[in-house]
């Protein structure tokens, strides 16, 4: 029973006007597949999404509060499609959530993990007990893939079209994952050192091992994602070296050593946009 594995958590400073508890049974056993339609014209108007991309159901009290954190640079079209699709997808799930887009504005190679740490820090400030760390090029296909935290850190995107819907290796912990804020703090977040593509998610997996946190996954059929195609990225040169010493760095590379400059934060209708210079 999936419901038993979920943390029942609402943000501490979030109060819902509704009296009835939201029911998640129908969502978790919904067997349909979403179609990818990015032309939902009436998305914003009348659909209760507040500036900054925050949503809560109005007719029931949600059990889950989730901050969805998306590291980003240079993919405006992909981001637009992602936001429209995700709000359509998520508002059916009866959860309270907010979408944070963390944009790297400097010219150094992309640092996905550091951007995720920055987003996590913003989510902690807003009181979110659950984080979903999410790539902008991934779209969930199954309504039953609930954007809430399970008791174990959860790899959500185990079944992606790009990999012919097969998990490439067992310890893969990238793409889209759900982890509670307290678990993320326990392992000192992610490493800040991975510039360029690759390795930072494997480093996070090593941290889970140090923290003795076992990852979990929903069934492959529930965990299906569509990956939007894009150009391949510049690979991180130091990633193998860094990964070799991942477990040694957990206490002195992460949330406790996070330094950056916040250039601006803008509340857009569909997302909170945090621009940072790393
Ligand atoms: C791995 C990458 C991951 C990436 C997956 C799936 C590395 C570290 C050196 C072995 N790991 O190879 O970061 O998520 O592929 O694409 O590059």
Automatic annotation (TrEMBL):
- Return the Gene3D superfamilies for the record: Spore Coat Polysaccharide Biosynthesis Protein SpsA, Chain A
Domain (Galactosyltransferase N-terminal) spans 47-150
Q: What domain of life?
A: Eukaryota
Which InterPro entries does the record associate with it? Galactosyl_T, Galactosyl_T_C, Galactosyl_T_N, Nucleotide-diphossugar_trans
Q: What is its main location?
A: membrane
- Record membrane topology: Single-pass type II membrane protein
> Where does the record say this protein resides?
Membrane
Pathway field of the UniProt record reads: Protein modification; protein glycosylation
The coenzyme or cofactor needed here is:
Mn(2+)
Q: A Pfam family for this UniProt protein?
A: Glyco_transf_7N
User: Which intervals hold domain Galactosyltransferase C-terminal?
Assistant: 154-231
The UniProt function text for this chain reads:
Catalyzes the transfer of galactose onto proteins or lipids.
Q: Which family does it belong to?
A: Belongs to the glycosyltransferase 7 family.
- PANTHER family with a match to the protein in the record: BETA-1,4-GALACTOSYLTRANSFERASE, BETA-1,4-N-ACETYLGALACTOSAMINYLTRANSFERASE
The name this protein carries in UniProt is Beta-1,4-N-acetylgalactosaminyltransferase
Native source organism of the sequence: Chilo suppressalis
Taxon lineage: Eukaryota, Metazoa, Ecdysozoa, Arthropoda, Hexapoda
